[in-house]
């Protein structure tokens, strides 16, 4: 995400590398957080399309939040151990693949499982987004980068 010439803790928000890091981390964590609430709008239509009951719809919403909340600390620890950028990118790809699976789910069971997998992806990418900013940006720019 940062250029090879940028030393850790030296990226500036106004630089091209800084704008790129802020953009990717905001988009990554934003899609994970948006997905936790946007499903509520679609639940009635999902119930109609899949012919499912209220309990399955509740699990559709809760499966994501349970795995996200339950694994977010693990996601941060994995980022510390294997590299923030690597775990963030794995989380984004994982989240996108699980989102595709949600979109093609033929029944409520597959949808619930895919939502749980989305939560795993979110748990991998969410802590990495702030960690990338904390580790990469110059101390004078960190608050500004997080605030964007």
Automatic annotation (TrEMBL):
Regions that span the bilayer: 20-43, 55-75, 87-106
Topology within the bilayer: Multi-pass membrane protein
Annotated GO CC locations: plasma membrane
Highest taxon of the lineage: Bacteria
GO BP: response to antibiotic
Pfam families linked to this entry: MFS_1
Keyword Transmembrane found: yes
Record-level Gene Ontology MF annotations: transmembrane transporter activity
UniProt xrefs under SUPFAM superfamilies: MFS general substrate transporter (SSF103473)
InterPro entries: MFS, MFS_dom, MFS_trans_sf
Main subcellular location: membrane
Domain Major facilitator superfamily (MFS) profile, residue spans: 21-148
Keyword terms, alphabetized: Antibiotic resistance, Membrane, Transmembrane, Transmembrane helix
Subcellular location: Cell membrane
Record flagged with keyword Lyase: no
Protein name: MFS transporter
């Amino acid at each position: 995400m940062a250029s090879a010439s940028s030393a850790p803790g030296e990226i500036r928000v106004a630089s091209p590398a800084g704008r790129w890091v802020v953009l990717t981390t905001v988009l990554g964590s934003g899609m994970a957080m948006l997905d936790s609430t946007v499903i509520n709008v679609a639940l009635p239509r999902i119930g109609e399309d899949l012919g499912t009951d209220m309990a399955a719809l509740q699990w559709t919403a809760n499966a994501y939040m349970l795995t996200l909340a339950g694994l977010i600390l693990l996601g941060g620890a994995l980022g510390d151990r294997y590299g923030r950028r690597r775990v963030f990118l794995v989380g984004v790809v994982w989240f996108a693949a699980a989102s595709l699976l949600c979109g093609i789910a033929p029944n409520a069971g597959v949808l619930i499982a895919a939502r749980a997998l989305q939560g795993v992806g979110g748990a991998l990418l969410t802590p990495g987004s702030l960690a990338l900013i904390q580790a990469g940006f110059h101390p004078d720019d960190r608050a500004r980068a997080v605030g964007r």
